[in-house]
Design goal:
Length: 336
């Protein structure tokens, strides 16, 4: 079978690999397509996955199956890659993404391949029938949307909360819509005009251009609440984003970090956190229940992803990487 393997810090190689075989329990999935996640880009740039197949936002057809679940050969399914144990200290505290099993489990070899093997645990927890009313490139938003729902819940988002999303890439646009599903009043900001236009299209209450911290924070507060945001979702990792977040958040407010960066030397001002009683949170990956909730929201049209993706063939995956890094597109969908 054909698959895209990480070649270096910028590109993949298309190579022939042995097709995975069905083991004791589980299924072989013929991959239809796979979304290119920001975490795939980070792994590529960090050089930590040389000669590995990435990709986890998968839609495909069950080609072979040996399972006690209700899935059958020929079913079209959407899936996610990590599974918690549900029994460890982390799982008992609902920190599922910190579970050791969660971190170790994955699909084999990865979604940028013609076939993958998934386990019985996947079938029981992170695999869902693809809704008939959703196209393939919409369905694969299940996992990233679930990540956003997890973040919205971790921030204790409530009805009429004044929310600001800093960074309107695909995750920022999903985050804002997820917060609106929980009743929040949502604003967003970005430096790119086309992303500002998309945020307006998908229903953000206010959108601002983040070309100046002082100007953006002033406009945001004048249009929402002078005290500032109850919750900031930081979906763009940079010093300038942190500076803007601190200017926009209210005293006693929450800043939730949902962004990975390459050097990890950013820092919050200690005294501001202390004297202003700010809460700073991180959120990384979803619980299994978040996946189901995300798929339901997509199925019933509560989340709009129209215009978010551009399709690429597996042979053109390096073009997808380049276009993503150069901000020519919002998100790539790789057709296998």
């Amino acid at each position: 079978m054909r698959a895209a393997l990480v070649k270096n810090l910028k590109e993949f190689d298309i190579k022939d690999l042995q097709k995975p075989t069905l083991k004791d329990k589980g299924a072989i999935i013929k991959v239809i397509g796979c979304g290119l996640c920001g975490s795939d880009i980070v792994k590529l740039l960090h050089g930590t996955h040389i000669n590995k197949v990435l990709g986890h936002e998968v839609i495909g057809i069950i080609e072979e199956i040996n399972s006690d679940t209700s899935f059958n050969k020929g079913d079209k399914v959407i899936l996610a890659h990590h599974i918690p144990c549900f029994n460890c200290d982390y799982c008992r505290k609902h920190n599922y993404s910190m579970c050791e099993k969660f971190k170790k489990t994955n699909i084999t070899p990865g979604g940028f391949a013609e076939y993958i093997y998934i386990t019985e645990d996947h079938l029981k927890n992170t695999v869902f029938h693809a809704p008939h009313n959703l196209n393939d490139s919409t369905s694969v938003f299940m996992e990233p949307l679930a990540c956003c729902l997890r973040a919205v819940k971790r921030a204790n988002t409530e009805k009429n909360d004044n929310v600001m999303v800093i960074g309107l890439g695909s995750i920022g646009l999903l985050m804002g819509q997820a917060a609106k599903c929980y009743g929040a009043k949502v604003s967003g900001c970005d430096i790119l005009d086309e992303r500002i236009a998309l945020a307006q299209k998908v229903g953000f209450d206010n959108v601002f251009k983040s070309d100046s911290d002082e100007k953006t924070s002033s406009e945001f507060k004048s249009k929402t609440k002078e005290t500032g945001a109850d919750i900031i979702f930081l979906t763009s990792g940079s010093k300038s984003s942190i500076s803007l977040a601190l200017k926009c958040v209210r005293n006693g407010g929450v800043i939730l970090v949902f962004a990975s960066i390459s050097d990890d030397d950013l820092g919050f001002a200690n005294n501001q956190i202390y004297y202003r009683e700010l809460t700073v949170l991180g959120s990384y990956s979803p619980a299994c229940s978040d996946l189901e909730e995300a798929l339901t929201l997509l199925k019933y049209g509560k989340i709009n992803v129209t215009g978010f993706t551009k399709d690429y063939s597996l042979d053109k995956i390096n073009n997808a990487i380049s276009d993503t890094l150069n901000k020519k597109i919002l998100k790539a969908y790789i057709k296998i």
